[in-house]
Amino acid sequence: MSRYSLMPLPYRADLFEVAVGWDSGLDTYFITVFGTPVIQREPEVRLWRGNVWRDLVAAQELVAIAGQYAEVPADLTTKLEEDRIAAPHQLRQPINRLISQLLGRVPEK
């Protein structure tokens, strides 16, 4: 799994952090947008994509979504694709087989 913390856009003072990355277990890219925290409380999750099996399969799609909330480095798409190649989804790993079964997917033999 990879994770990058992006700075919210300057006019988005209502946001605390935008986190993006690659989750090999769910075979998806993800984005989580956090609102500014209230005193003694965790930040509110404003947007959470990539929390289900293969929700975001293209790095370009993730970067387009992230661009609505945060400053996106020019090389982010490349980094995310490299992360996916370096840590691909491997269905034969026990945890990934379990996740697939829980999600009702038939694992490869």
How would you sum up this structure, described in words?
The protein has 109 residues and is an alpha+beta fold. It has three helices and four strands. The protein has helices spanning 59-66, 76-86, 94-102; strands spanning 4-6, 15-23, 28-35, 45-49. A four-stranded antiparallel β-sheet has the order 1-2-3-4. Helix 1 crosses helix 2. The two termini are 24 Å apart. The relative contact order is 0.20.
What order do the helices and strands come in, and which of them pair?
Elements: E1 4-6, E2 15-23, E3 28-35, E4 45-49, H1 59-66, H2 76-86, H3 94-102
Antiparallel strand pairs: 1-2, 2-3, 3-4
Helix pairs in contact: 1-2
Quick gist of this model?
The protein has 109 residues and is of the alpha+beta class. Helices cover 26% and strands 23% of the residues.
Average residue pLDDT: 89
Q: Based on Cα principal axes, name the global outline.
A: globular
Low-confidence stretches at least 5 residues in length (pLDDT < 50)? Answer: none
Characterize the largest beta sheet: strand count, sense, and whether it forms a barrel: 4 strands, antiparallel
Strand percent estimate: 15-25%
What is the tally of beta strands? 4
* Rg over CA atoms: 15 Å
Total helix count? 3
Helix content range of the residues, please?
Answer: 25-40%
Oligomeric category: single chain
- Topology as a string of helices (H) and strands (E): EEEEHHH
Separation, N- and C-terminal Cα atoms: 24 Å
Give the spatial strand order of the biggest sheet: 1-2-3-4
- The secondary structure category is alpha+beta
